[in-house]
Specification:
Layout: H1 2-24, E1 46-47, E2 54-55, E3 63-67, H2 68-73, H3 79-84, E4 89-93, E5 99-103, E6 125-129, E7 132-133, E8 148-155, H4 159-162, E9 169-175, E10 184-194, E11 200-211, E12 216-227, E13 232-233, E14 237-238, E15 255-257, E16 260-261, E17 273-285, E18 291-304, E19 308-309, E20 317-318, E21 325-341, E22 344-362, H5 373-377, E23 401-403, E24 408-426, E25 433-454, H6 457-460, E26 483-505, E27 510-531, E28 545-547, E29 559-575, E30 578-589, E31 592-593, E32 612-613, E33 616-629, E34 634-653, E35 662-682, E36 687-703, E37 723-735, E38 738-749, E39 752-753, E40 763-764, E41 767-778, E42 781-788, E43 798-800, E44 807-809, E45 815-823
Length: 824
């Protein structure tokens, strides 16, 4: 059915554009102006979506480009800000640096950050910082948007040029580079007030460009941003509830339950965050044909609290019993050599990224979910009668059991390192036959140490826990008493790929494009998961857990993947102002190892978890158009697409059926039919209108899940509103010697589901948010007032139970910001 909708809509759209084009491109004298008078036209943006510099309107790729000017006009700062203004991009997440983006409705649900390193799927949207891919499971690189030239959002599979994870699309953050035009710079400062918060947000940003000679120039950017919290950690108590999790009372009989009290952690507005960083770059002109640029970016995010609230506690309120904090630091060094070899333009670019994450998370709610809570929380009056632990445990407790302090939390230390190298060549743009081709190598490594604290275990006699002595070890140290379980895991992902796209101008109007990428990947998973069992053991636990070189179907050898993906495009210029194109493209994201591979389920209805999961694959068909109409006053771009998504990677957190808790399987197939578009209209000399829309009809067409209990065939995909709209109006005028502006914008999203997992699945409400701003400028300075979420709408962005207590991730409440900036 979706195929028929796609064909019908494609034919209709093509016909409409063809019929409309002569009317829309009328002579410019119809508004009373003569052809000799200077008129405004919609600005065009130079992009590098095809790895070469081209006008956005000339590229047969669906691209949304947010320019540096757009970011200033809309007060865009972090990841959540710039995603929110895009009509066909969504995200699910838990706060700064903990989100997963989705494009064109290709969503499942985010992996919990508690296991993003040990067992997390690679996102299906690739994130690039300049030329380096920086995609990571469950943890987007949340780069603050200081001195960015533009953000390019490429919708649809981009795998031939941008590789793995460019399956639903690619988001590229493009920084400003040193130039030789002169010494200049600028700064901005802001102060903001958020509803329901007693603190003030504030920021300071600056940049400077300095050419020191005809051959050498430097550029620097610096920022320090504090965003005030708006969620309160209120006083409360927690007691394990045997009616929810009867396993805390295994064997029957009497049990007493100690209550946890969070009085020491009570705090208003406890989810504040800070972004601090800088970027330094230098360009050396070797000669007239070659230049070399080196750049280093350094950033630290510090965040406290949580960014979702518990509606059973109150609006923007939670009750947390273990400290919640995050420190996320990365340093990225990149280098690029540009030049020309005979007729070929050559680019060699490389990069090294080092990222370190320290996070503390409360998951006391696990007491009412986990299958082994009683073993780690409750006393054993007569241990001689313990036959096993967990579901099959048998206890004789004539004196009754005492379930002690139920507080549980995790401390996560994760190191990510990534190096990549790309060498590519391009033929001259004026040639009738053109090509961009090259080779790419990447090595990405995650080392994670996830320590799970069960505060009752020291009183139960559990000894300190050591990693398996025969396993590969990230950290060989014995964990402190109280760490009842921990992961000590290294994941590596290595790729070598060859790619190319070739263009052939059949006529002056028709161009055919063919692209391919051949890749070889090796994915390895080593280390151990370690379980405390110290009640009857010596002073230190050893060799209790799973060695991921030998256990449950794991081997010391990496998982290897080889394939070729392709792209074919036909581009046709109806006239100088209207271009249409049709594309068939493919995308993929890599498979990997299941941490619990080969481990039998304790529930006989669910078979053994497979040791590995495969790539999931996408075939995308789209018809698109790019138009500049009404003599440059209107720009309207859009496309219609049909997507076949097969062997979807679905993650499942299962604390009852499978003892390893989290796994991934290729659980389903789906189809997506969609339409998206964006427009700019210079309505008058003073008024500019911007708009964007997306419609996505998503449907599960096949469910082959063996373990994950997911929604049935015919269900919608999660995190995907069927309809999304964005709009913005900007009016500029003169007030005496001052340039003034007023701006209003809105974002609308219809209802959506939060998850593909049946037990967690529920509807998220539709929402509308609105923003307003006014300001003035003169010469080289400007000042403005920006109102975000003016009506204090509480949007349901992601309903989740990732910490075993249902909470709602929402947008920032109404925030009023005053900003002043100057250039010199």
């Amino acid at each position: 059915m979706l195929k028929n909708q796609f064909l019908s809509s494609t034919i209709f759209t093509a016909a409409a554009l063809t019929l409309a084009s002569p009317v829309l491109a009328q002579d410019d004298t119809t508004d009373g102006q003569t052809g000799s008078e200077e008129r405004r036209q919609v600005d065009t943006v130079t992009i590098t979506a095809t790895k070469t510099e081209e006008n956005q309107q000339d590229v047969p790729v669906a691209v949304n480009a947010i320019t540096g000017e757009d970011m200033r006009e809309q007060e865009i700062g972090n990841f959540d800000d710039y995603i929110r203004y895009l009509a066909n991009v969504n995200f699910g997440g838990r706060g700064p640096g903990q989100s997963t983006p989705y494009i064109r409705g290709m969503a499942v649900q985010p992996i919990t950050v508690l296991l993003s390193g040990a067992q997390g799927t690679t996102p299906n949207v690739a994130l690039y910082l300049d030329e380096q891919p920086v995609t990571a499971p469950g943890r987007n690189l949340d780069v603050y948007a200081t001195d960015l030239n533009r953000i390019e959002v490429l919708a649809g599979p981009q795998g031939t040029l941008f590789g793995a994870s460019s399956q639903a699309g690619t988001i590229r953050l493009i920084t400003n580079q040193p130039d030789f035009s002169g010494v200049y710079g600028g700064f901005s400062a802001s102060m903001g007030m958020t509803a329901h918060s007693d603190d003030f947000s504030h920021s300071t940003e600056a940049y400077v460009n300095v050419p020191v000679s005809d051959h050498l120039a430097f550029r620097g950017a610096f920022y320090n941003v504090f965003e005030a919290g708006y969620i309160d950690n209120v006083h409360g108590t927690f007691t394990t509830d045997p009616s929810i999790n009867p396993l805390s009372q295994v064997g029957g009989g009497y049990a007493s339950y100690e209550a946890a009290d969070n009085a020491q952690l009570v705090e208003e507005d406890f989810n504040d965050s800070t972004y601090r960083g800088f970027r330094l770059s230098g360009t050396y002109l070797i000669n007239d044909m070659w230049d070399f640029t080196v750049q280093h970016t350094q950033q630290t995010i510090e965040a406290d609290g949580v960014f979702d609230y518990d509606p059973t506690v109150g609006d923007l309120e939670v009750t947390r019993f273990f400290p919640d904090s995050l420190e996320d630091t990365f340093g990225q060094t990149t280098w690029t050599l540009n030049g020309r070899l005979a007729m070929l333009d050559m680019v060699y670019t490389g990069g090294y990224l080092d990222r370190e994450i320290d996070q503390s998370v409360d998951y006391t709610g696990y007491n009412n979910t986990g299958a082994f809570i009683d073993y780690y929380t409750c006393t054993y009056t007569n241990p001689a009668y313990i036959v096993n632990y967990g579901i099959d445990a048998q206890y004789i407790t004539p004196g009754g059991r005492e379930c002690l302090n139920p507080v549980k939390g995790a401390t996560i230390h994760q190191d990510q390192s990534r190096q990549n190298h790309e060498l590519r060549f391009s033929t001259p743009a004026e040639y009738r036959i053109r090509a961009t081709f090259g080779a790419f190598y990447e090595n990405f490594e995650i080392e994670t140490q996830d320590d799970y604290w069960y505060l009752a275990t020291p009183d139960l006699g559990f000894a300190p826990n050591a990693p398996i002595s025969t396993a590969v070890q990230v950290n060989p140290a014995t964990r402190p008493s109280g760490v009842a379980f921990f992961n000590d895991i290294r994941r590596t992902d290595e790729e070598l790929a060859f790619f190319g796209e070739f263009e052939f101008d059949i006529t002056d109007q028709l161009t055919l494009i063919a692209g391919a990428r051949q890749y070889h990947r090796e994915v390895d998973f080593e280390g151990s998961s370690n379980f405390a069992d110290g009640i009857f053991q010596g002073s230190v636990n050893t060799d209790r857990g799973r060695d991921y070189d030998v256990n449950g179907g794991h081997t010391p050898n990496p998982l290897e993947m080889d394939d070729v993906i392709t792209k074919f495009t036909a581009q046709y210029w109806v006239n100088d102002d209207i271009m249409i194109y049709a594309t068939r493209s493919e995308g993929y994201r890599p498979g990997g190892w299941n941490r619990g591979g080969g481990i039998p389920s304790v529930n006989p209805m669910f078979p053994t978890v497979t040791a590995t999961y495969d790539t999931d694959d996408v075939v995308n068909y789209e018809f698109g158009w790019k138009t500049t109409l009404a003599d440059g006053l209107v720009q309207f771009n859009g496309n219609v697409y049909y997507i076949e998504w097969s062997d979807m990677q679905v993650s499942r957190f299962d604390p009852q059926n499978v003892s390893i808790l989290t796994f991934i399987e290729n659980a389903a197939d789906s189809e997506i039919f969609g339409v998206e578009g964006d427009a700019v209209w210079l309505a008058t000399d003073n008024l500019t209108l911007f708009g964007g829309f997306s419609y996505n009809n998503t449907e599960l067409t096949s469910v082959q899940a063996q373990i994950a209990e997911i929604a049935p065939v015919g269900s919608e995909l999660p995190q995907t509103p069927e309809l999304q709209l964005t709009g913005r109006a900007r009016y500029e005028w003169m007030v005496g010697q001052y340039d003034a502006f007023a701006q209003a914008g809105f974002q609308y999203a219809s209802e959506s589901y939060n998850s593909l997992i049946l037990a967690d699945r529920e509807r998220q409400d539709s929402y509308v948010t609105a923003d307003f701003s006014v300001g003035v400028a003169r010469d080289n300075w400007s000042a403005g007032i920006f109102v975000e979420n003016a009506f204090d709408e509480r949007a349901e962005l992601f309903i989740n139970n990732q910490d075993d207590i249902r909470r709602i991730n929402t947008n920032r409440p109404r925030t009023i910001t005053f900003r002043v900036s100057a250039d010199f």
